[in-house]
Amino acid sequence: MSVLKIEDLHVSVETEQGTKQILRGVDLAVGEGETHAIMGPNGSGKSTLAYAIAGHPKYHVEGGSVTLDGEEMLDKSVDERARAGLFLAMQYPVEIPGVSVSNFLRTAKTAIDGQAPAIRGWIKDLDSSMTALRMDKSFRERNVNEGFSGGEKKRNEILQLELLKPKFAVLDETDSGLDVDALKIVSEGVNRAKENTGLGILLITHYNRILRYVKPDFVHVFVAGKVAEQGGPELAVRLENEGYDRFLQGANVG
Amino acid sequence: MALASPSLVPVQTRSERPSSTDVSDFPAVTGREFEWKFAPLDRIRHLTEGALDGGPVAFQYSESAGTSVEWVDRATAVVGVAGTPEDRASANAWGAVEKVLTITVSSEEAEELLVRREHFDRSPRAAHVVIEALPNSSGTVILEHRGDAELSENVEIVVGEGAQLTVVTVQEWADSAVHLSSHFATVGRDANLRHVIVSLGGGVVRVNPSIHLAGQGSSTDAFGLYFADAGQYLEQRPYIDHQAANTRSRVNYKGALQGAKAHTVWVGDVLIGPHADGTDSYEQNRNLVLSDGTRADSIPNLEIETGNIVGAGHASSTGRFDDEQLFYLQSRGISEEEARRLVVRGFLAEIITQIGSPALEERLTAAVEAELVEAEVVRAAAAAPTLDGGAA
Ligand SMILES: Nc1ncnc2c1ncn2[C@@H]1O[C@H](COP(=O)(O)OP(=O)(O)O)[C@@H](O)[C@H]1O
Ligand SMILES: [Mg+2]
């Protein structure tokens, strides 16, 4: 049983006004095949948690640990973490001019596996994932995320998730900006990855909507840089009805 | 009282820049002239001030259907159709040349012509090339440069009515080579010139194309790709002269710089003349800085002398790696080294894929790859901690 464990994580970021504390002691454990929803108001630090796990250089870890099956991730470089089995579907995927989707995917797959994928099987996997995500074949020759719509960028993130087969994925607001059809397509992709590989998921979202399609086992309410409350799927329903106000009382947001 | 501030009036418009085929019409170069402002004068002085050997130098070329290549005596060659020297090195070469290398594209579907020039040596030389595309012809001429050289040259390009000509000049000189090249092009009615400069190797390489859109409806696509390593000086000053009505130009130059004292210069002049109604022009230059200690000068300049144009724009930028791009690639397991290579390769691919010659595109992709591998070695060495505290 694989497990991703986040313990007492403190993270800050440098701003023009000086060092700003964002994460203030996050504790979370995600087991293999589990889906944990992280819900919270804007600015509560959800993306910071995602970036800190992935190792973005802007976010400074002040304390705590992130381990994958007991191995410390925080000492590793960004690419080493990915090769260890972590994946981040970004809230705002970056455009890479001049690098085609197919070249990018093959390069990433080769890096993750430590060897180039066999051509035949690779093309087949790529084709079937793209078809399932309703991505036209022409996307293979387009530059990564360049000129993609918001929905296309999110699908491209899930395409990578399916092909790179990580142990744990953080999905940062993959649902935001998607219409219902796109939301279903993306959710199906996430569920396929889960079924096929026993993926553990940290599903960051602002809304309850996606949780109808990707069923969470646990829900954590994130406020002011830490988990304020946790429960089962029923907590998400309650949040939808009541909003975050209850948690924001007295909380130092932002 | 006059309202116009004197600072709004250009000191000298591009159309009024002095030109002459006689070197004595240009005063000795001091380095204060705008056209010599950035260049390392001590490395080029023998080409601007000294005597040049204008004899023919052996070269190789491909036998390509629909094209011809020959040496023509200076006395009988038709020169000066496409332009007149605007600087002293160019005029110096103009006067010294004994034979003119004449390349003609005569067929509607001419085969790609490759001219390889690699037998220059360290003696200061002058050369003159005339490339002519006959009316309604279509073809590609590639000039490749290797080995050592101390060369000042003029390249004239005459694109006849309705012709489609691609001229590519590739500089892969040895590190010690000095190459000052002025290209003059005149593009006829409804004709198109695709002009590509690729400068990868050489100590001092300056290729300045002046492209005159002389015929109505003529157009040019001018591209440049350069990669400057430590100590290299690479300069290019594209000048697009919109003379006739309904002319169109697109200028796109991209460069990468890596290593101490890698220096690139791009000066892009666009002149939309008084009769160039309906002109559509855009020029841009982008530089990617891969290490400390480099210098990229990038100066776009647009002069408009008619009010009735379709569009005229310019863009110039010089920047480092986008950290977010690197993070994105690394978060997919790709090492930093490979991520950097992917980004630079992608940045320069935009130009390479425009050349239109599959074989050359493939070869240049490999050449850029080799530059990147070399750059990575330099970068890694610079980043490695030194035991003695890194005394320079
Ligand atoms: N790179 C950064 N520079 C400055 N402030 C940042 C940066 N990243 C995040 N923040 C700040 O940290 C807080 C948490 O941001 P974020 O993690 O993006 O929240 P969420 O994803 O929950 O909306 C916000 O106040 C935000 O402005
Ligand atoms: Mg966020």
Automatic annotation (TrEMBL), chain A:
It comes from the Bacteria. Transmembrane segments: none annotated. Residues 4-249 form the ABC transporter domain. Keywords: ATP-binding, Nucleotide-binding. Pfam families: ABC_tran. Belongs to the ABC transporter superfamily. Ycf16 family. This is Fe-S cluster assembly ATPase SufC. The lineage of its organism: Bacteria, Bacillati, Actinomycetota, Actinomycetes, Micrococcales.
TrEMBL record, chain B:
InterPro entries: Fe-S_cluster_assembly_SufBD, SUF_FeS_clus_asmbl_SufBD_core, SUF_FeS_clus_asmbl_SufBD_sf, SUF_FeS_clus_asmbl_SufD. Residues 1-26 are annotated as: Disordered. Residues 126-347 form the SUF system FeS cluster assembly SufBD core domain. Belongs to the iron-sulfur cluster assembly SufBD family. This is Fe-S cluster assembly protein SufD. It comes from Herbiconiux gentiana.
